[in-house]
Amino acid sequence: ATPFDAPGSTLPPPPVAPTGPGAPGGYGYPGYPPGYGWPGMPGQRQNGMGVAAMVLGILACCLFCFYGVVSVVLGILAIVFGIKGRKKAEQGLADNHGQAQAGLITGIIGLVLGIAVIVLIAIGVVAAINSEEDSWEDEDYYGAHRPAVTAPAFR
């Protein structure tokens, strides 16, 4: 008895759980045979790798002007994600094979552009260091290029 019960009253026992001891065969209607009812939710497609590859590849192609380093890093990431995205699409886990392929191709282009910019900058730096014509350390720089001024002698 609980404190809220009236003195001397008896309460029926609590209901039995559907799976508990002494439970009847079950509540409600009998189950449907297999194959009826709502179909299960289709598996969610894993398109993240293909989308990431395409976005990173496009950024790699566009951002090569930042000394090439950004383009090289983004290009490598786009290639890796493109390969993984294509594998998922081939396994049937994703349905964006085209995006993964585009990410792979633009990642390769971005990587090549980035490497080309780095090589051109390196060539320019080496050429600037090795140029002897425009060296500011040359002692005769001002004297060697100064035109000789001749004026008529007044007597």
Quick one: overall form?
Answer: elongated
Counting DSSP H or I runs of 4 or more residues, the number of helices is: 4
| Unreliable residue runs | none
Radius of gyration: 40 Å
Number of strands: 0
Category by helix and strand content = mainly alpha
Largest sheet: none
Share of helix among residues? 40-55%
Roughly how many Å apart are the termini?
141 Å
Oligomer: single chain
What is the helix/strand order?
HHHH
Query: What fraction of residues sit in β-strands?
Result: under 5%
Average pLDDT works out at: 79
Explain what this protein looks like in three dimensions:
This protein has 155 residues and is mainly α. It has a domain at 48-129. Helix content is 50%, strand content 0%. The chain contains four helices and no strands. The mean pLDDT is 79.
List keywords for this structure.
mainly alpha, 0% strand, 155 residues, 4 helices, elongated
Compact summary:
With 155 residues, the protein is an all-alpha fold. It has helices at residues 48-62, 69-91, 97-130, 141-145.
Provide the fold topology:
Layout: H1 48-62, H2 69-91, H3 97-130, H4 141-145
Helix pairs in contact: 1-2, 1-3, 2-3
